[in-house]
Amino acid sequence: MADPRHTDSGLAALVGVATAAAGTGSALRPEDVSCERLRGFFTGHLLAEDSPPALADGFVRRQGELDALVTYESELLALNAGGRLREPLQIVHPEDGMVLADYPLLLLDPAKRASYDRLVAWLKSGPVQKKIMERTLRRPVDPAVPRIESLRPPIGNALYFPDRQEVLDRLLADYGKAEGAPPARVFFVLDFSTSMAGERIAALRATFAGLSGADDSRSGKFLRFHRGESFTVIRFAGRVLDERTITYRTQADLDLLRQAVAADDFGEDTAVWSALDHAYGRAAELVRDSPRQGASVVLMTDGENNAGTGLDAFLDRYRALPEAARAVHTYTVRYGDADPRELDRAARATGGRMADATAQSLLNAFKETRGCTE
User: Fold this and answer.
1) What is the pLDDT of residue 239?
2) Domain range for residue 349?
3) Chain segment 121-174, per-residue pLDDT in tens
4) Is 58 among the domain residues?
5) Cα 50 to Cα 9: distance, rounded to the nearest angstrom
6) Euclidean distance between CA atoms 202 and 54, whole angstroms
7) In this structure, what DSSP letter does residue 246 have?
8) In terms of domains, do 148 and 171 share one?
């Protein structure tokens, strides 16, 4: 798609994707904008230009490596008709709807009202609308004008454009952060104490399967793992049991990620805060070596801390970290008999939040953690 900071078509595309991700069916509000929900879209965005024609030219040059093009319908139809493509594009009208572009004619001098009205009437007349449609491949404003074959498919719902500037500011800020930045790293700190054996570990494994693509719900499509993301899975009990880092490039990488939680070696005790401290040690190394790479920590436990360091000691160590490492937020997932007060306190102290899996499914709780990494 074209660069949304410089083009209306790019901004319309960004608003459309964000509206579909929010799933509200109404105009976007600031709280509806989640860069994590858009991260998969940003990850797959390989071509940006400062105008629709330049975007079309860029696609023609790279058509062997690009899979899709998001732009005005008229631009797509013109490409298909222009003879520059090896094979025609299949035009897709999003089921969720899309932002419609119009071209208003404004009257600047009230003294010219009569001339203005005559011009508008001429432009909206049937013969002129037909010529505009045939020459520019844009849909006529008058629904009574018969469509040419390529414009007969219905366009579906028209999406609301945001009516608040702060929404657009946040969308464009998220786009700017994602442009050229390395994909994010998520540190999963997972409780593998003996109390997790049985139904609880089965639910955890089903959660990772859902985030790997098995969840076909609307939110699942936007919040699943994205190509390019890196994951460090830290399993713990009374100590750290295992640590694996995987970058998702192919299906085989997702299989490795699921294998990381398929292990059956559980341990006695639950050293929650020692495991989280270990994760922050790894996060500190990451932000030191790759300052632009976003990162977050997801801590899931089903019990209270009964080994290793305490929460107060962890927070003291956290406050002593370099500023960049302290910008890594922790999202805690309360499961089973875990202490909600401690988990909420740890999340808030690190800039994250707690998701409660005792009041919803573990999968939905993990979806809540798919928040924006700074």
Assistant:
1) 95
2) 182-368
3) 999 999 999 999 999 999 998 888 999 999 999 888 888 888 888 888 888 877
4) yes
5) 10
6) 50
7) E
8) no
